[in-house]
Amino acid sequence: MSISGGCLCGAVRYEISGEPITMRVCWCKDCQRLAAGNGSANLLFRRDAVKITGNPATFSKPADSGNIIDRKFCAACGTQLFGETAARPDFIVVRAGTLDDSSIFKPVANIWTSSAPAWACMNDSIPRHERQAPPPTSK
Amino acid sequence: MTLPITGSCLCGAVKYTLSAKPIITRLCWCRVCQYFAAGNATVNVCFPNDAINISGELRDYRSVADSGNIMHRRFCPVCGTHMFSEAEARPHLIFVRAGTLDDASVAQPAANIWVSSAPGWACMNASLPQFERMPPPPGK
């Protein structure tokens, strides 16, 4: 499976050689700020499966989990592309809006739902976690 | 709803105050918005442009939207939070990204728009109107 994507203006691109480990919608407050008010749609990959071209800007801040998250975005168009943390250096989060083929994203859970806005729409057929989800099982 | 309404980006470098209540809030599923909302729909709260006071440096990304309008989408260059959207055709309005509101309850979605380009997993409140593409202008 080969997955490709990039930011809106095309200054940052990526190619992924593996399949997503998990896919989730995150409702933490930081994600709502970065996702225009909605839950962020995130795919988790092994870091070594993702090849990035271009130079995204980085904003680092502790998340609700306590981990310091490096959030990477395009400095030209402001598209949020990736999330990484030194606490789990083998993994990278890719924001689903940047996929060339957005049908790849199939969420398996909503997480941090305790901070979701009252109007938040969540698929009833997938689990909800009030806070952090259990670690994904590796493939 | 208490005025003024306040908000900021994730890092706090850009802040704003609003002296008016929102005109309407909509979720937009156009493909460009999915880039700005990490794959989801953007949640946009419409205000009269003369009611907002912004402090801090913003970067402007100009593009042509699916509607054909020339859009200015402004974000914080420090943390990459998209904050505002303005259409040259409607200079009296500003759309504030709901994630930047200090009080998220200010945003009360009234419709989903551009649902023709929503992803298969998109979750929409069935009690709200859905527009395949552009809705009628607010306030009409």
Mean of the pLDDT scores of chain B? 95
Number of distinct helices of chain B: 1
- Overall 3D geometry of chain A? globular
Biggest interface reads: A-B, 45 and 45 residues
Order of helices and strands of chain B: EEEHEEEEEEE
Radius of gyration of chain A: 14 Å
Strand order of the largest sheet of chain A: 6-7-8-9-4-3-10-11
Low-confidence segments of chain A, ≥5 residues, pLDDT <50? none
Number of helices, where a helix is a run of at least 4 consecutive DSSP H or I residues of chain A: 1
- Residue stretches of chain B low in confidence (pLDDT < 50, at least 5 long) are none
What is the element string of chain A, with H for helices and E for strands?
EEEHEEEEEEEE
Span between N and C termini of chain B?
Answer: 23 Å
Radius of gyration of chain B: 14 Å
Major β-sheet profile of chain A: 8 strands, mixed
Number of strands of chain A: 11
Strand content of chain B: 35-45%
CA(first)-CA(last) distance of chain A: 14 Å
Beta content of chain A: 35-45%
Identify the quaternary structure here.
heterodimer
User: What's the count of strands of chain B?
Assistant: 10
Quote the average pLDDT of chain A.
Answer: 94
